[in-house]
Every structure is written in C-alpha cells, then in structure tokens.
Amino acid sequence: MEDVCKRFDTEYEVTRNVRHRNLVSVITTCSSDYIRAFVLQFMSNGSLENWLYKEDRHLNLHQRVTVMLDVAMAIEYLHHGHVTPIVHCDLKPANVLLDEDMMAHVGDLGISKILAISKSMAYTETLGTLGYIAPVVKNLLIFWPMIGPKILIFALGLVVLNLENNNFHGGIPYGLGEMPRLKVIDVKNNQLSGSIPTSLFQNQRVQVISLVFNELSGEMWRGPWYVPKLRVLNLWNNSLTGIVPPSVGNATKMMNFSMSGNRVSGNIPKEIGNMSQLVELFLFDNQLTGFIPPTLFNISSLLSVSLANNSLSGSL
User: Fold this and answer.
1) Are 106 and 9 found together in one domain?
2) Distances (CA, A) of 118 to 113, 114, 115, 221
C-alpha cells in the first residue's frame, strides 16, 4: 500500500538521523517486495498505556514523574537537538515504551513531520488528530511549571557525575545515591570528608563509584549492599574504618574492587568469592586479619590481587 510505504520511508528517514537515550533505538530494517519492518530495541515492560490503564499494573508518583521527564527530554531533542526540527505528531501512551529499568523511550515516528527550512525539503503531512492531546503530554504540561525543570533534570536525569580533581569539601549528600538514572559517580581527588552515605550501596543502577584521594572517614558502610550492577568500586587513600561486609558478595558484576590505603579491619569474608567477574582486588595497606578465604581463588577471571601490608595469617 502506498500510504504504508510512505509512512515506513518517513520513519526510516527520521530514525536514521536521530540518536537519543529516550527514543526507541532502531537496530536495523528489513525491506523487500513483501515486507517492510523495523527491528527495534526490546522493551521488556511494554507500553506506558498498559501501565496506566490495566488494573494489575501500577506506577507510583516517582515513576510517573520520571516517565514524564523522559518523554519531555525526547521531545525536546526532536524539536531543538537536531539540525532539522522534527514534530512527533502522534505522542500518546501507546507510543511510549518502558525498558527493564522503567526508562521511557518514545517510538513510532511514522507520521512525524520534518519541518521544512526551504521549499526544496520534503516533509510529511500531519495526520495526528486535531484538537487531541494525549494524557501523558497533558499531565506533563500541567505538572512541569510546578516542579521546576532545572531541579528535576538534575535530580532525575543525571547519568554521569564526574567532579574529579577539584577542591570540593564537606560530606557526600545522601540524595546522590537516590538519583534513579545515575550510573557513574566519580569525585576522586577532592577534599570530601565524613562517611559514605548508605544510599550509594543501595543504588540498583550505579556501575562505577570512585572516591579515591579524599578525606573520608568513619565506617565504610552501615547496612546491606544492594548494588547489582556495580562494576567498579575504588576507595583508595582515605581514612575509612570498619570491615568488609559479607553482603559485598551481592555485587556479582564487580570487576575492580579497590580500597587500599584505609584502616579497614576484620577478616576478608568468604562471600567475596561470589564476585564471579572480579578482575582486580586491591586491599593493601589496611588492618585486615585472619586468613585468605579459599573462595577467592575460585574466581577464574581474577588477574591481580594485592593484600600487602596487612596482618593476615594462616596457611596459603
């Protein structure tokens, strides 16, 4: 059908030129005389429409605000972050998909409109329903002035925080560990003091925590670990105390675990063997006692281990 082919060509023209984390990613296309299709990134939590209108699903206020922010950033990118402005024209809950982390991705650009800068540029006819605005957009427009866009973007949209090699002082804010999108926290080589907030070790999305060369003190962590995606934890050269908790074994994706140059005491827990992807372990210059747990040497990915300058004992 001519209309279907035109819609496919429009979506292809738009998606091949746009890249944003809140737009559905197109992996490839399939086109022949019999089929035209897009292969899209899989969204395990389905559409926003199902979460809004099905009785067995529920979004809390935090999730709703986060989804609205995701949608707003996607549309802002289409309008202002691209050489040629693009209008979606069919923004509704059914066209907002949620990934495994409940991050929203806007999709279905088949009737989007590429705004013409000159008459020589082709653009599609706007086919959206006149006078209709979908609930997700209406709620966003009502709610956005009340919450303050700058504060919301910082609190909910931040993915990487890199403040290394500065002169920041004082404590690490507890709210830093509660930012839902944050994956990288790098504040090494500053003058930060106080203890590490427990929220950093209960963030389900964080992948890198680097607090090297600061003036942190007190117990390294108080409470259980729940950092399923943490890959790098670097706490070198501080004055942290306490023990290596057994719950460290929950960080099964950890690749680099470094906390040398502190005052950590107690035994190395046997649960450290659960870090099946560990590559580097640096615990030198501490006050560790007891023996080295045999489970450590069951980790086949391990390349470097340094336990120098402790009080470890027992047989090898």
Assistant:
1) yes
2) 14, 11, 9, 60
> Is 169 found in the same domain as 293?
yes
Across the chain, the runs of DSSP E, i.e. the strands, are 26-31, 36-40, 86-87, 96-98, 104-106, 113-114, 160-162, 169-170, 184-186, 191-194, 208-210, 215-219, 232-234, 239-241, 256-258, 265-266, 280-282, 287-290, 304-306, 311-312
Measured CA to CA in angstroms, residue 87 lies from 21, 72, 74, 139, 294 at distances of 18, 13, 11, 19, 60
Four-CA torsion 251, 241, 280, 293, nearest 10 degrees: -80
Q: Are residues 248 and 223 in the same domain?
A: yes
Q: How far apart are CA 164 and CA 141, in angstroms?
A: 37
Q: Which of 74, 66, 75 has the alpha carbon at shortest distance from 152?
A: 66
Q: Do both 141 and 163 map to the same domain?
A: no
Q: Cα–Cα distance between 307 and 302 in angstroms, integer?
A: 14
Domain co-membership, 51 together with 26: yes
Q: How many other CB atoms are there within 10 angstroms of residue 223's CB atom? A: 12
Dump pLDDT digits (tens) for 176-212: 887 777 899 999 999 999 989 888 888 888 999 999 9
Asked whether the beta carbons of 240 and 196 are under 8 A apart, the reply is: yes
Pairing of strands 184-186, 160-162: parallel
Total domains present in the chain: 2
Q: What is the pLDDT of residues 244-266, one digit of tens each?
A: 988 888 889 999 999 999 999 99
Check whether residue 198 and residue 138 sit in a common domain: no
Beta bridge partners of 241: 219
End-of-domain residue from the set 126, 147, 168: 147
Please measure the distance between the N-terminal and C-terminal CA atoms of the chain and give it in whole angstroms.
Answer: 74
- Is residue 153 situated within a structural domain? no
Q: Read off the CATH number of the domain in which 44 is found.
A: 1.10.510.10
